[in-house]
Specification:
Helix content is 54%, strand content 8%. By secondary structure, it is an alpha+beta fold. The strands form six sheets. It has a five-stranded antiparallel beta sheet with strand order 4-3-5-7-6. Strands 10-11-12-13-14 form a five-stranded antiparallel beta sheet. The radius of gyration is 34 Å and the shape is globular. Residues 29-43 have a biased composition (Low complexity).
Length: 931
């Protein structure tokens, strides 16, 4: 009997067995022998007991190394060897490496002749020195180095492979099969001189390990913090504590035991009250800094060494804060001030006991709120400065002149922010310090506010950064403690792993990227590949998606817990490729999809994670349906059996594409058909297509937006839209005001949520022929009541939710506009704290058009168009932010038709309450701080 094995091998006079729940089963083909299955290969007349022992060994091998390990021909005893049936992915190097990892170096003899499996790993030119280096790597457990060397053996020489085999790093730095990575390396390095390839690969290795180290550092440090966010609880506790202090001051200064409301109205806080606020603000900041640095130290070095490193800093905090217990709760709950936790830790450490489980159990919960205390202190500093600058100048200058020598002698300076390079925060340090010389020329004072930025730097270090990023000129807090990474351009090779990075480079080469001459670093190499115009050209244009496939976009695959997303353009493929580590964005896929010869799909699990890519092709004739041409998981691994089976069944059920019928020549004009009612035709023709488009848009953004609207409506997310739709304009405006006042929803987040319009996006994606045929569809984007035809359309479950989301978004924006034109303090405070360019432009256009009877400040003089501030803008720029803001301003309630008359007559204006220190230019810069 002949058995077809992986790699085109045919075994004669042998039999193959697989393990079944009922016992050993001899492979005879058909359903009992799926492609690539692991089998035990042995004599056809083997005894049953020998077969059972061989299958037990095979199961242990596959359990340790996966099905790929079976392809290495591992000795299973009694004349049996492992094998894989025909149809397996990968090549022999994948099998040998998987088996070697499963067996260990001590059992490598079961793979057969040493020279044979070395040739499988590194090719026929393998040397003894490479073999020795490979053995050492396997013995040391450095499987990532062995994996990379095996994959690179096609593009590197023996001496270069020895260097690679000497590397050390985590196993998952090189995921996927070696044969897959080998293919990527071959394409990426095809135009690179052989001597330079090693330099690029070693530099890539260091970049990948560096990124992984940063990610691990962040995760390790953030793990010291509590999983439940208690910042709102801390705010409430702090507010009650501040109220108690205010009442205490009032009773002492008024000399009354129980102040009345009238007493409170007449009471003016003395300078001592404000000075005490500044002192308390400083004490809280250094205490929170100490807690943050202690959390970082124990995360990096463990509790014993971390606490030893941090003990002097915590002691210095207690020395500076003699009343550190002020703010402790009697019931043992969260204190209102971080000084309490710093003092409690100091008291235990100073007792001199061992760092045992009891001490760790005491310290650990007092570090878990370090992050939230830091955020609370940053908010407090902003509030105090806003209240006092311009109002309490004498108090500020008096406190700002306080020396910090004792604190710095004990605490020192962090390496991230040396005093010689500190220039202060001019809008704050100016009123505090006046015209004093730079810090590098004198002793540090409280008014330098370096202690404040030390706090933000410590918070940044907790998040895995070296220091906070300066955003000077943009408004408080002036520094970003957790700046997001810059979004890379599509097809920029990612550094999450070696395989991911090399696959990205290989794709750039396939798209026409040319390796730059002389590049010796990985960054220079990939930047040169991406610089070619061929890359940009490859990403332009959309795909011809056949209607049956387009209609299935967003559909669930029964039995697989995944949803299908259809690629509409090359940029979709670029995003998939960036994550999946494959070449689905290659020119062959793009060309076929553009011409409609294939459809390319992404399969997403319930958490929105891409788990597989697939290519499906039409059968012949096309009306028969579709077939799966290719399906692969990440790094071109085989998908799970259940996913593969369920997806193929789903594709089999897709309807085919009927070719267009040839027009029939009519000698006699046909009789005019009877006029049909429009309503059924609209629902039947538009409903299914619009519903699919709307559902896809809803899936993309609906859940996040509903969370915002739930906070606004004070209801669960599933009831938020119903509640908000029922509110009148006055009630809705009050709800918006309440949400902004309590900070339940920041204005920027509310603005972004109200911009999510799934139904509008779906209408935009509708076939223009349908939009032209049913010209009343735009009424869906207006206020009710709708015509009966459209009411029937939006009653469908796929459209009802997106329609309600669009409607509520427009109404909430109108409520924001009503608050803005009456100069409500909640809008002024929100805009002053954080805004964005689209939001600020839309609000400014609204106020300019409405010209409300409130104090207004001029931004642009009448009949002028150049808007001050950086980045520079002009009102006349057709593609500029002011022209783009007109539709949004109209939703806020602006009569945008009068905008140019208003600018000509009165200029561009905003409420004076929006402008703080720095005026319009500071506000405009703040709007760009988070871009």
């Amino acid at each position: 009997m002949k058995v077809r094995l992986a790699g085109g091998v045919v075994a004669t006079d042998l039999a193959a067995w697989t393990a079944r729940p009922s016992g050993p089963e001899r492979v005879t083909g058909g359903p009992s022998a799926p492609p690539g299955a692991a089998v035990a290969l042995g004599p056809a007349d083997a005894a049953d007991e020998d077969v059972r022992r061989a299958l037990a060994e095979l199961s242990a091998l596959v359990g340790a190394g996966g099905p790929a390990a079976a392809g290495a021909g591992v000795d299973l005893g009694d004349g049996f060897r492992s094998a894989r049936l025909d149809g397996a992915r990968g090549d022999q190097r994948d099998a040998v490496l998987a088996a070697l990892r499963a067996l260990g170096l001590e059992n490598a003899g079961r793979l057969g002749d040493r020279a044979g499996f070395l040739v499988a790993l590194f090719g026929p030119s393998v040397t003894r020195r490479v073999g020795a280096a490979a053995a050492k790597a396997a013995g040391d457990g450095r499987w990532a180095a062995l994996h990379l060397a095996s994959a690179a053996s096609d593009v590197l020489g023996p001496e270069q492979l020895e260097r690679v085999l000497g590397l050390d790093g985590p196993d998952d730095a090189v995921p996927g099969a070696p044969s897959v990575l080998a293919g990527y390396l071959g394409r990426a390095f095809e135009g690179v001189p052989r001597p330079r390839r090693l330099d690029l690969l070693l530099d890539l290795w260091s970049l990948v390990l560096d990124q992984r180290d940063r990610s691990a550092r962040r995760a390790r440090r953030m793990a010291t913090q509590g999983r439940r966010d208690r910042l709102s609880d801390l705010r409430e506790r702090r507010a009650r504590h501040e109220d108690e202090l205010v009442v205490g001051w009032m009773t002492r200064t008024l000399g009354v035991g129980e102040p009345t409301l009238a007493d409170a109205a007449r009471w003016i806080p003395p300078d001592g009250y404000w000075h005490e606020q500044l002192v308390r603000m400083f004490e809280d900041a250094i205490a929170a800094t100490a807690l943050l640095r202690t959390a970082v130290a124990v995360a990096d070095h463990g509790y014993e060494e971390g606490l030893a490193r941090s003990a002097p800093l915590i002691a210095a905090v207690v020395e500076q804060c003699p009343a550190w217990g002020d703010g402790r709760r009697r019931d043992g709950g969260l204190p209102s001030r971080p000084t309490v936790h710093a003092g409690e830790i100091h008291r235990r450490l100073s007792a001199g006991g061992p760092v045992d489980a009891r001490l760790v159990g005491f310290v650990k919960p007092r570090l878990t709120r370090a992050r939230e205390f830091a955020l609370l202190v940053i908010e407090t500093v902003e509030t105090v400065m806003e209240r006092m600058i311009g109002q309490r100048g004498d108090v500020l200058r008096d406190w700002g002149a306080t020396g910090l020598g004792a604190w710095r002698d004990a605490a020192g300076y962090g390496a991230a922010r040396p005093p010689a390079g500190w220039d202060g925060i001019p809008p704050w340090t100016g009123p505090l310090l006046g015209d004093r010389e730079p810090l590098r020329d004198r002793e540090e004072l409280a008014g330098d506010l370096l202690w404040y930025v030390d706090l933000i730097d410590a918070l940044a270090q907790l998040h895995g950064h070296d220091a906070a990023r300066s955003v000077d000129g943009t408004g408080a807090p002036w520094f970003d403690h957790d700046p997001p990474p810059e979004d890379p351009e599509p097809l920029t090779p990612r550094l999450g792993s070696v395989t991911l990075a090399v696959s990205g480079a290989a794709q750039l080469v396939e798209l026409g990227g040319v390796p730059p001459k002389g590049a010796r670093t990985w960054t220079a190499f990939t930047e040169g590949l991406a610089a070619g115009t061929a890359i940009s050209a490859a990403l332009t244009g959309g795909f011809q998606v056949p209607p049956p496939v387009a209609a299935a976009d967003g559909a669930a695959v029964p039995g697989a817990a995944v949803r299908v997303r259809v690629a509409r353009s090359a940029r979709d493929l670029a995003e998939w490729s960036d994550y999946m580590g494959n070449c689905i964005a290659g020119p062959a896929y793009i060309d076929d999809a553009r011409d409609g010869r294939v459809a390319l799909l992404g399969l997403y699990d319930g958490k929105g994670v891409l788990v597989a890519n697939a290519e499906i092709s039409p059968l012949r004739p096309q009306s028969r349906g579709w077939r799966v041409s290719e399906i692969a998981a990440r790094f071109n691994e085989a998908p799970g059996e259940e996913l593969d089976r369920a997806f193929r069944a789903w594709v089999d059920a897709l309807p085919g594409t009927r070719p267009p019928e040839a027009p029939v020549t009519e000698e006699v004009p046909p009789a005019r058909p009877a006029r049909r009612r429009a309503a059924p035709r609209l629902v039947e023709e538009v409903g299914p297509v619009l519903g699919d488009l709307a559902r896809a848009e809803w899936d993309a953004s609906g859940a996040a937006v509903l969370e915002v609207f739930a906070a606004l409506a004070a209801t669960p997310p599933d009831a938020a839209l119903t509640r908000l739709r029922r509110l009148g304009s006055a009630q809705l405006t009050a709800a918006v005001r309440r949400a902004l006042d309590t900070r339940a929803v920041p204005l920027v987040r509310l603005w972004e949520a109200t911009g999510a319009r799934p139904l509008a996006a779906a209408l935009g994606g509708l076939d223009p022929v349908l939009r032209e045929r049913y010209d009343r569809l735009p009424l869906l984007l207006g206020e009710p009541p709708l015509p009966k035809t459209l009411r029937r359309l939006v009653a469908g479950p796929a459209i009802a939710g997106p329609y309600a989301l669009d409607l509520v978004g427009r109404r909430v924006r109108a409520a924001i506009g009503r608050l803005a034109v009456r100069d409500d303090p909640v809008v002024a405070r929100a805009v002053g704290h954080r805004t964005t360019e689209p939001l600020l432009c839309a609000l400014t256009v609204l106020v300019t058009c409405a010209a409300p009877e409130i104090p207004l400040a001029g931004v642009v003089p009448p009949r002028k168009v150049h808007v001050p501030g950086y980045p520079a803008t002009t009102l006349k720029d057709e593609d500029g932010p002011w022209r783009r803001a007109l539709p949004d301003a109209a939703e806020l309630g602006a009569d945008t038709g009068s905008f140019w008359d208003a600018v000509a007559g009165r200029g561009l204006r905003v409420p004076a309450s929006w402008l703080g220190a720095g005026g319009w230019t500071a506000l405009w810069a703040r709007a760009h701080a988070h871009h």
